């Protein structure tokens, strides 16, 4: 059984405004961004922020990741919508996992075509009138009608929109309650704290609702920051971290189900030109840490929890 102290996740990744939407089509020649959503969409009557706290929403990204949200980067924003990015380049987060902010039922999973500018959209009904929207997804990994758990992957960050609307990759996120657009868009609350509008960098506590006390940083140690992750269904998440001081990569798989019970879990790291290092067995909380010097080299990484596994290509060359 792995029992180690928990380190506070405190790293922050800066938002590249080039990586988020800016202005709406029509706002100026050649200026692009999030379009105005379909105002005919309806939801139950509005409620106040105090009720939203009770829904226990988490950041729509895997546990331990830091993302910068911006509610003012697009002139198309009508209320409290947020565009999320991480990384220092426009496409740094293209393909990164997007997860459910809370448990619920998928009521929309479709490309919106010319209807609006959402592109690939997933909408989740959380009950009590609350719903969340996840727009511009590169890939949708859930279908309408399915039940999803908090922290379950529902797609990946993308830049899909309506024909002719070219935007940089980002996640457009909304929380709605009510039928009168845009007043039905509510302030986002993550882990019981209202988002710090207009711009804030937030670290995800979306760990699938589990009580796993471990984070990627607490497993890998001081100086390591998360650079990538992959959801393993609802069973766990595998993380790739890097230490800029010593040039080492670290991989760990953090369990999100069967917490405290020894189940098959693994994590591996392969630096290009070197042998693969694997930690595999029956673990109560996590597999790893697996560390190797990777400065200036490409790495393969992955892991398994439950019936789900992830295997990356050689990537993240030099970091």
TrEMBL record:
Residues 84-178 form the M23ase beta-sheet core domain. Residues 1-29 form the signal peptide. The keyword Disulfide bond does not apply. The keyword Transferase does not apply. CDD domains: M23_peptidase. Transmembrane segments: none annotated. Keywords: Signal. PANTHER family: MUREIN HYDROLASE ACTIVATOR ENVC, PEPTIDASE-RELATED. This is M23ase beta-sheet core domain-containing protein. It comes from Streptosporangium brasiliense.
